[in-house]
TrEMBL record:
PANTHER family in alphabetical order: ACETYLTRANSFERASE
Organism in which the protein naturally occurs: [Bacteroides] pectinophilus ATCC 43243
Name of the protein described by the UniProt record: PglD N-terminal domain-containing protein
Cited InterPro entries: Trans_hexapeptide_repeat (IPR050179), Trimer_LpxA-like_sf (IPR011004)
SUPFAM superfamilies associated with the record: Trimeric LpxA-like enzymes (SSF51161)
């Protein structure tokens, strides 16, 4: 657990950062500031907190008494979040994790910097690496292992005994067969069902929805 006297900041000012800030406030955490690269700063305040330039962190804070939540999503297949993580570690800034009170975490191991939102489930004997994001109702089932810097979107379901590599994206309501291997940088689109091992940087999407011509809804229901 981080020191109660530690200054805590959120890297990012996107919707993800806003949601994380809301959840942290609800959990009674105190956030000192938002942080972002100087070129992205458009205002000095955000949600009632100051916005500081990432480039100035060493001048503003004692980095040995600073903790940072990384609220960066799946940009560049999660490489943007990976870059910030490694830079913070080089500066010896503690990377913080968040676990919502309604999440069910039975995992053997969860790496630092993970964000686990409401009603997410990490099943028995599962393992999660560093800086993974588990959106609401996402599931990593029993005995499954995920690497680092992955993004699990709303209501996705990874079945048991699945191995997920690094920098993968699993979209809303996507699901997998048990026992498969998902290679690094795999993208599984929303609503997909994955039943096979993937190759690195493979992109899996479901059959597209189409409009049925010459019919209206009441022809069917």
């Amino acid at each position: 657990m981080p020191d109660k006297n530690m200054k805590k900041i959120i890297f990012g000012i996107t919707d993800l950062a806003d949601v994380l800030f809301y959840e942290l406030m609800a959990a009674g955490e105190n956030i000192d500031a938002f942080c972002v690269n100087r070129k992205y700063i458009t205002d000095t305040m955000h949600l009632g907190r100051k916005v500081v330039a990432y480039e100035d962190i060493n001048d503003i804070y004692d980095v040995h008494e600073l903790g940072c939540y990384i609220a960066v999503g799946y940009n560049s297949m999660n490489d943007a979040r990976k870059k910030i993580y490694h830079e913070l570690k080089e500066m010896e800034i503690k990377v913080l994790s968040f676990v919502h009170s309604s999440a069910v975490v039975m995992a053997e191991r969860v790496g630092e910097g993970c964000l686990i939102f409401e009603h997410a489930i990490l099943g028995p004997y599962s393992q999660a690496g560093i800086c993974n994001i588990f959106y609401p109702k996402s599931m990593l089932s029993h005995h499954s292992v995920t690497g680092d810097f992955n993004f699990f979107a709303i209501s996705c379901s990874v079945a048991g005994n699945v191995t997920v590599g690094n920098n993968c994206f699993i979209g809303n309501n996507a699901a997998t067969k048990d026992g498969i291997h998902i290679a690094d940088y795999t993208l599984i689109g929303a609503g997909s069902y994955l039943a096979h091992d993937t190759a690195e940087k493979e992109c899996v999407v479901p059959a597209r929805s189409v409009t049925i011509e010459n019919h209206i809804s009441t022809d069917f229901l």
